[in-house]
Amino acid sequence: MQVPVLTIDGPSGAGKGTVSRAVAKLLGWHYLDSGSIYRSLAVAVLKSGLDLSDVAAICRVAEAMSLEFDCGDELVVKLGGADITSQLGTETTGNTASIIAAYPEVRAVLLQKQKDFQRLPGLVADGRDMGSVVFQDAKIKVYLTASAEERALRRYKQLIEKGIDANLIQITREIEERDCRDQQRATAPLTVPEGAHYIDSSSLTIQQVIDQVVNLVD
Ligand code: DC
């Protein structure tokens, strides 16, 4: 039986994670946060002190990496049995993930780990190339975006709420750099997949986006 897949791609900070998790919960489907796979590899690579240009060594780490995902209310990720969840969300991890994700060899190693999430009754997959590469045959594809200024402001508010010192100008610059790297890389760049529903969340609430996506599935 064909396992249904809903893909939600878009740039960082567009609300993909929150929307995907909520939609997966409403539908009772599994959830793949593919960014967390790239982020976990970034944590492993940073820990091992590897040079970020040593592609062969990064691939060896990716092949050897044993990841466990607990996708309950809060995502918990274990790398080699150790809980690394708190390290996944940092800017250093995100930027490193974006750098190593540009290597086609690294993407090839991580491809099957992502496909393994396609299980009954269905999957909501969030990332950059879910609809264009990993789950090309997905029945429903969404491209969720928002302006760089709006995404930076959301990130800034999140950090301030957590009591973390943040600089809006620097966050905006980092978001624009990351967008540029993710969109311009040669392999599996961030792009609007063919047939995808385009949603700009700049002036929408999270609930409005969730409703729009669930309506597509209905
Ligand atoms: O979605 P995120 O911010 O957690 O992703 C972190 C980085 O991982 C992102 O900047 C690029 C990379 N990534 C990717 O190349 N392909 C994906 N499907 C998901 C993430």
From TrEMBL:
It is found in: Cytoplasm. It catalyses: dCMP + ATP = dCDP + ADP; CMP + ATP = CDP + ADP. Residues 7-217 form the Cytidylate kinase domain. InterPro entries: Cytidylate_kin (IPR003136), Cytidylate_kinase_dom (IPR011994), P-loop_NTPase (IPR027417). It holds the Pfam family Cytidylate_kin. ATP binds at G10, P11, S12, G13, A14, G15, K16, G17, T18. The keyword Iron does not apply. It is an enzyme of class 2 (transferase). Keywords: ATP-binding, Cytoplasm, Kinase, Nucleotide-binding, Transferase. Its EC number is 2.7.4.25. Its main location: cytoplasm. HAMAP family: Cytidyl_kinase_type1 (MF_00238). NCBIfam families: cmk (TIGR00017). Belongs to the cytidylate kinase family. Type 1 subfamily. This is Cytidylate kinase. It comes from Methylomonas rosea. The gene is cmk.
